[in-house]
Amino acid sequence: MTKVDHYKTLGVPRDADTATITKAFRKLARKSHPDLNKDKGADARFKAVAEAYGVLKNPEKRAAYDNPPPPEHPGPRARQRTAQPDNDDLADLLAAFTRGAQGEAFGANSFGGRGRQAAPQTGRSHEHTVHLNLLDAHKGTTLRVSVPGATAADGSRSLDVTIPPGTASGQTLRLREQGEPGSFGGPAGDIYLHIALKPDPLFSVHGHDLHMPVALLPWQAVLGAEVEVPTLEGPVLLTVPAGTHTGRKLRLRARGLANRQGGRGDLYAVTHIDVPAVSSPAELALYRSLAEAAQAPPQHSAAEQPHSAFAA
Question: Which of 77, 123, 144, 226 could make an SS bond with 180 (beta carbons 3.0 to 4.6 A apart)?
Fold first, then answer.
């Protein structure tokens, strides 16, 4: 049988060192591996390259190949096994192929074994912002949102997302494994929903507390009154103490936003004095009388009149 020239197969000189042999093997194996090259004969070429590398890389096998025993020893010839590259070298090469092929895993290799499988990779996660009105954040709701990075042909899909009661602005909800699919058996990525509250025409949000402006007429501020104010559950009566000034905060306990622990914030009515437009002579006369009364010196009874030290 004609002896196969392993040096010629790898394209290296007979005095090539191990590093040169390994470099040549990797280059040729990459070109001829049947999982990457669908040409006829690729499988046979790869086996030849692997056989040559398995012989020339090993010093003992290479010495026996370079100096075969003399032919005058008769007897049954032991069947020569096809040399294969070391498992670690072939596995590393296959892993490199896998990375270059954008994550395509190899199955059984040309020698009947299995190459090293790439590690499971988690799919990519995506972030999305959801804008809620105040009442939905307070009571909770279910929204249909369009999220990116899914499997639909247009690159997005709709998800029905449950927003729990007490969700606050700035919170992030995690939808596990709703992102892009993983590879090599890895889990899908996640979707992170960032919560933002829409501006509300009545209330301003301070954590889980709410603030709202309340206009008082001058006599309500001076004398005290009960005024109707809005809340998340509907209007209620607010008691305004006598002598209330502009900027005073009147608290309605547990009338604010729900929180995730089952409690609630407070609602603060921030007062300001609303001076009405005067349109009639009678109203003007009343204001003049009020002004005169406020500016008049205090009156004293006869018993309270001061006595002069010089009285007769």
Answer: 123
Could you tell me which of 169, 175, 174, 173 has the C-alpha nearest to residue 138?
169
| pLDDT tens readout for residues 174-214 | 999 888 888 888 898 899 999 999 999 999 999 999 999 99
Quick: pLDDT tens for 151-172: 555 467 888 999 999 999 999 9
250 pLDDT more than 90: yes
CATH superfamily for 6-69+78-100 is DnaJ domain (1.10.287.110)
pLDDT in tens, 28-65: 887 877 766 677 777 788 888 888 888 898 888 888 88
Compute the distance between CA of residue 255 and CA of residue 277 in angstroms, rounded to an integer. 33
pLDDT in the model for residue 120: 86
Structurally, at CATH architecture level, domain 126-197 sits in: Sandwich (2.60)
Give the pLDDT score at 32: 79
| Bridge partner list, 146 | 158
Domain ranges across the chain: 6-69+78-100, 126-197, 204-273
CB 122 within 8 A of CB 103: no
Distance (Å, whole) CA 211 – CA 231: 10
What superfamily in CATH does domain 204-273 come from? Urease metallochaperone UreE, N-terminal domain (2.60.260.20)
For residue 45, CA distances in Å to 9, 33, 34, 40, 224 come to 9, 8, 9, 10, 100
